[in-house]
Fold each of these.
Amino acid sequence: MRKNSTLPMKIIFLGPAVFCYLVVFLYPTLRTAFMSFFKVDAITDALAKWSFTGLGNYASLFKSTLFMRSMQNIAGIWFYGGLLVFALGLLFAVILTSGVRYKAFFRAFIYLPNVISAVAMGTMWMQYVYSPRYGLLKNVFGFLKLEKLAAIQLTSPDYIFAALLVAYCFGMVGYFMLIFMAGIEKIPVDYYEVAVIEGASRWKQFVKITIPLMKNVLRTNIVLWTISTVGFFVWSMIFSPLNPEPGTVTPMVYMYQMIFGANMVVTERNVGIGAAVGVLLSLLVVVVFAAATKLIRDDDVEF
């Protein structure tokens, strides 16, 4: 009787959460996966208007030069941006956990770009840093007598991907720095004290103690960085708002244009192809998560 008496309470407390999960997450996910096998003109079209294409939408994606370019773009952002963000984030984390003065101030200062919206940050970089007329970099290069660098228009098609990458990484360093700091501060201080007694240098302590004991943190950051890269959208739209350059097109931009309206990115709207992009990106995150879990293990580490 006691077990049965708790059933109504379970339904009351769990029911809303389960309902929201089914309606907000599970149903859209299954509908998107199902839709990826059909040609759909509008996202609100009834099922009767859908035209079955099988794997045709996926085949069209891999035949699309622009979509493959968008995949190359996020691969570059994931690899080069990941190296830059992880290197700077880990460097700042090590410095700020080494007993430096004004730690709270520097931590907040480095994290500040994450508090500002991506739209505001992107606009700042476009209008005040990369501006070909009065941009910060143009003035700095001019002051240093680097006329060739000052003459480069960083928002031109030849340089816009690099400019976008630098701006995006600037805004992400603080976030991953905090995660690295949390991982470092969790390591017992005794390990470092013993290493100092044994005569180990700072670099050796970092390589032999810090890195091995932060495998789980590194794995988490790789997954979070992958999710962030796969969802790369706002920055691309800010750097090329009307007719995106090939260097700024990402799969999310391609998917958005396929679903909500064609322009220079895509010439014909097809919600089914947009759904196929979403499925592929979801599978990509799952693959990276599985690979990171398999390759980066901390089973042999105890502390």
Amino acid sequence: MNITIRAAGLIKSGPERDLVDDYLNRAGLIGRNIGFAKISESQVDIRAAKTRTDETRAVLAAAKPDDILVVLDEGGKALTSRQITKQLANWRDDGMGNLVFAIGGADGFEPNALPVGAVKWQLGKPTWPHKLVRVMLAEQIYRALSILAGTPYHRD
């Protein structure tokens, strides 16, 4: 299974970029041994987007119909780290090929532009800056793969 984070906007450098890269690199090292072939991020330049619908379409453009699409949205389901881990393992064990996590622009996704079947998750009730959302998601992916690999990173 491959995991990709598709995020609106660009992070060129700085501490957030360093953290995202670190967590995704660590996840990639662990993932190879437990059925997760590739962990990556794809940034989407949304400066040309005129509307929230345009932004939504730009972020989701690379997702294929057979990909699992998880949209981060304030109205999504809040999961514990263990629940995220279980869901990733289930998708992997079911033979799903690609998992795409989508992070929208400042105003979120246009609900009417989301494909039917998109899964909605949230990273808690507060509103988070986009740069931190990427860091938090990358960390949760790393944490989930660490749990699956049996490393001591996560403590209950």
